[in-house]
Amino acid sequence: GRTAALIPAAGSGTRLGRGPKAFVEVGGISLLARSVAALAPLVDEVLVALPAGMDLPPGLPARAVEGGDTRQQSVARLLAATGADVVLVHDAARPFLPGAVVGALLEAVAETGAATVALPVADTLVRGEGGLRVEDVPREDLWAVQTPQAFRRELLLRAHAQARAQGVAATDDAGLVARLGFPVRLVPGDARLFKVTAPGDLALAEALTRVWDA
Ligand code: C5P
């Protein structure tokens, strides 16, 4: 079947403080262009949700859709704009996407219908209250969820429809599918898939480009 990559890139980048985040450059290439370049060779089409009034930079092999007020709305609009059998959702804010990760994810989604890239948690985890450590949280069985995430399109459409009907918000799409009661396969991710969120992440990304682009 056909596969579409859906890239929500309509965030305002408030925490980064550099304008719409997808257009911020590291190593001279925008976060968005990096994600598009990683995905375009591996899928049949690439759709990008952009902030209202913004256009795709020239030359990107992708189609633009106007984003919504939240990430979830932006993904819903992207979903409505494709007829692909399988959709792969990837945050523009995660510009370093190894091809092997996409390959493993697409194999997993062919089996289960829903899969997400995630990293086993390496740090000790605790719950804090008022700046004090109050409780240890066992980290066995805990994963940090990343993107990309892949789904049979019909399944993600149902998950978004239910979330809308119930007024539910989730920070990722696999969470909405899990809420429907469907299994979501965890595919080992990659530390390089970290999300560029705060100014310090930008310095890390800038440094990584020197290895990644070499
Ligand atoms: O804000 P955060 O970093 O969690 O956003 C994750 C991804 O969702 C980013 O790539 C951002 O551009 C996108 N997003 C969106 N539409 C929104 C808010 C965020 O496409 N309204």
TrEMBL record:
Sites marked Positions MEP for the nucleophilic attack: R139, K195
Keyword Zinc carried by entry: no
Keywords: Isoprene biosynthesis, Nucleotidyltransferase, Transferase
Gene3D superfamilies to which the protein is assigned, alphabetical: Spore Coat Polysaccharide Biosynthesis Protein SpsA, Chain A
Record bears the keyword Nucleotidyltransferase: yes
Domain of life: Bacteria
Pathway named in the protein's UniProt entry: Isoprenoid biosynthesis; isopentenyl diphosphate biosynthesis via DXP pathway; isopentenyl diphosphate from 1-deoxy-D-xylulose 5-phosphate: step 2/6
InterPro entries in the record: IspD (IPR001228), IspD/TarI (IPR034683), IspD/TarI_cytidylyltransf_bact (IPR050088), ISPD_synthase_CS (IPR018294), Nucleotide-diphossugar_trans (IPR029044)
Documented EC number(s): 2.7.7.60
Family named by the database record: Belongs to the IspD/TarI cytidylyltransferase family. IspD subfamily.
HAMAP family attached to this UniProt entry: IspD
Matches recorded under NCBIfam families: ispD
Function: Catalyzes the formation of 4-diphosphocytidyl-2-C-methyl-D-erythritol from CTP and 2-C-methyl-D-erythritol 4-phosphate (MEP).
The protein's name: 2-C-methyl-D-erythritol 4-phosphate cytidylyltransferase
Organism: Deinococcus rhizophilus
Name of the gene this protein is made from: ispD
